[in-house]
Amino acid sequence: MNLRRYRKASIGFLLAALLVTVASAQGRRRGFPRFRGPAIKMATPQDFDGNFLFCRILFRNAPDGDGDGWGVDYPRADINLTFRLSELTTTTVSHDPEDGYKHVVVRLTDPLLYHCPFVMMTEPGGAYLDEAEAAQLRDYLLKGGFLWADDFWGEFAFNFWAGEIGKALPPGRYPIVDLPLDHGLFHTLYDIRRIPQIPAIDFWLGTGGQTSERGRDSAVPHVRAILDGEGGRIMVLMTHNTDFGDAFEREGDNHSYFLQFAPEGYAFGVNAIVYSMTH
């Protein structure tokens, strides 16, 4: 991992950088397959070559949860965020001859989970963790792993997720807290001064530009976390009432959506990855 210390950069600078590369990036992404189930790239030992590799968690949905499953935004969000990480930092990333940028899916009980310093879950408001999954996730996180849970809306989804992650990290010892904007994650590379509410593109287009997908129940976006008990390192990052994954996945689908949401989305996403690699 080729990471170095950067001076803080502005979101405006990031927008300029994204605009320089957006045409070629969209060209690269043309024809990327949308997730339909069978074409899942499960992790293998050969995938881990010492460079950054985007790892996505495959999980089961609970029948009484609130979420559309682990594959939301897969695989374009994974590919696009990896591409932007390689463009905007000196991080070396794994390449794939088919997709351009390598990405893998891993189960929580797979020993290869420990090869992933950064893992992501989407729509965790519907996730179900059994005893074995919760135990290995706990072990992974306490040994230095980092989980980002993104794209869940409203209080029911949040409370459901809190119950599931509580199986791994009991809330009495590992409470969920709101991250203040002066926390280091918001200033790792890009200076982030607000929490953006990023809606799914179809919702945004269909509602004339609204951003709260559940109305009053999801009006306020949150960045929350579970910290370790010693140095305050983030183990679990939670972006609630906002959908960073769509900012990555759908950046090339609509220019207005790109301009409004991609700069802040990528600023946060890059910060999250760099933080996970350096803490």
* Radius of gyration of CA atoms, rounded to a whole number: 17 Å
Strand order of the largest sheet: 5-1-6-8-11-10-9
Percent range for helical residues?
25-40%
Count of DSSP strands = 11
Shape: globular
Number of helices, counting only DSSP H or I runs of 4 residues or more: 7
- Characterize the largest beta sheet: strand count, sense, and whether it forms a barrel: 7 strands, mixed
Strand content: 15-25%
From the N-terminal CA to the C-terminal CA, the straight-line distance is: 13 Å
Label the structural class: alpha/beta
Order of helices and strands: HEEHEEEEEHEHEHEEHH
Unreliable parts: 1-7, 22-35
Overall mean pLDDT stands at: 90
Describe the structure.
The chain has 279 residues and is of the alpha/beta class. The chain has seven helices and eleven strands. The strands form three sheets. Strands 5-1-6-8-11-10-9 form a seven-stranded mixed sheet, sandwiched between helices. Strand 3 (95-96) and strand 4 (100-101) form a beta hairpin. Helix 1 (11-29) packs across helix 7 and helix 3 (131-142) packs across helix 4. It starts with 10 loop residues before the first helix and ends with a helix.
List the helices and strands and how they pair.
Blueprint: H1 11-29, E1 54-58, E2 60-61, H2 76-88, E3 95-96, E4 100-101, E5 103-107, E6 119-122, E7 127-128, H3 131-142, E8 147-152, H4 154-168, E9 176-178, H5 201-206, E10 222-227, E11 234-240, H6 244-249, H7 255-278
Parallel strand pairs: 1-5, 1-6, 6-8, 8-11
Antiparallel strand pairs: 2-7, 3-4, 9-10, 10-11
Helix pairs in contact: 1-2, 1-7, 2-7, 3-4
